[in-house]
Amino acid sequence: GNSVTQMEGPVTLSEEAFLTINCTYTATGYPSLFWYVQYPGEGLQLLLKATKADDKGSNKGFEATYRKETTSFHLEKGSVQVSDSAVYFCALSYNQGGKLIFGQGTELSVKP
Amino acid sequence: NAGVTQTPKFRILKIGQSMTLQCAQDMNHNYMYWYRQDPGMGLKLIYYSVGAGITDKGEVPNGYNVSRSTTEDFPLRLELAAPSQTSVYFCASRGTQGHTHTDTQYFGPGTRLTVL
Questions:
Q1: Which of A75, B2, B46, B95 is the most exposed place for a label (fewest CB within 10 A)?
Q2: What residues of A are in contact with residue B112 (Cβ under 8 Å)?
Q3: Integer Cα distance of A73 and A89 in angstroms
């Protein structure tokens, strides 16, 4: 079936460090891929998305590229800030109903 | 626009009690969803709706019921609360751009439910 696997957290980085959060997926067909972010005490917000192979989603300095050959959608940012501390969820959408399947989430903590 | 709103923010129930979690959106979105989020886990889909009067089960529907009498509202009902339903519940909606449904879901702030 369809599934999403993310690297386990928590991830702790110093400000201005490089961030990678790995995400791989299993799906039939050609899903859309997403990264959602959840700040403390809030609901999820869409961070970026990609709808087809080789697409790159980007927002707020974060990037992720849809790699069909490796079934991956890794999240990267060149220089993290304390305000990036949050839980990051990778997800895929697999049919017309737009239902999302989420990874387990990766908690990021950025220290000054 | 308020977006997606959920009430209450927090609730403690005793085993066997019932309650309704409210969700409303003011974006005229056709699709609405209910998810639960357990600690250290991703979100799991409970129920969803593609429009007023139409609902369908997600991954984990047991112990829950929904209705969709209007486009705006999508309440989630727990009839006989059990400790396994202790979770954070998120409602989400999805709409259209022009004549096409977008694939972006907008989430409410969540309801934290504890069943003791």
A1: B2
A2: none
A3: 11
Number of C-beta neighbours around residue A52 at 10 A: 11
To test the contact with chain A by mutation, choose from B35, B37, B55 the residue with the greatest count of A C-beta atoms within 10 A, namely B37
CA distances from B89 to A63, B29, B47, B86 (A): 28, 19, 12, 9
Tell whether A44 lies on the interface with B, counting CB pairs under 8 A.
yes
- Considering only CB atoms, which chain A residues are within 8 Å of B33? 99-100
What SS3 class is residue A73? coil
| pLDDT for the residue B24 | 97
**pLDDT above 90 (res A95):** no
Residues of chain B with pLDDT under 50: none
Contacts with A44 from chain B: Cβ below 8 Å: 43, 90, 92, 107
Give the C-alpha separation, B78 to B58, whole Å. Answer: 15
Of A45, A102, A104, the CB nearest to B40: A104
Chain B residue numbers touching A41 (CB-CB < 8 A): 109
pLDDT in tens, A42-80: 889 999 999 889 999 999 999 999 999 999 999 999 999
pLDDT by residue (tens digit) across B25-48? 999 999 999 999 998 788 999 999
Distance (Å, whole) CA B74 – CA B72: 7
Q: What is the pLDDT of residues A76-93, one digit of tens each?
A: 999 999 999 999 999 998
Secondary structure letter of residue B2 according to DSSP: -
Radius of gyration of chain A (CA): 13
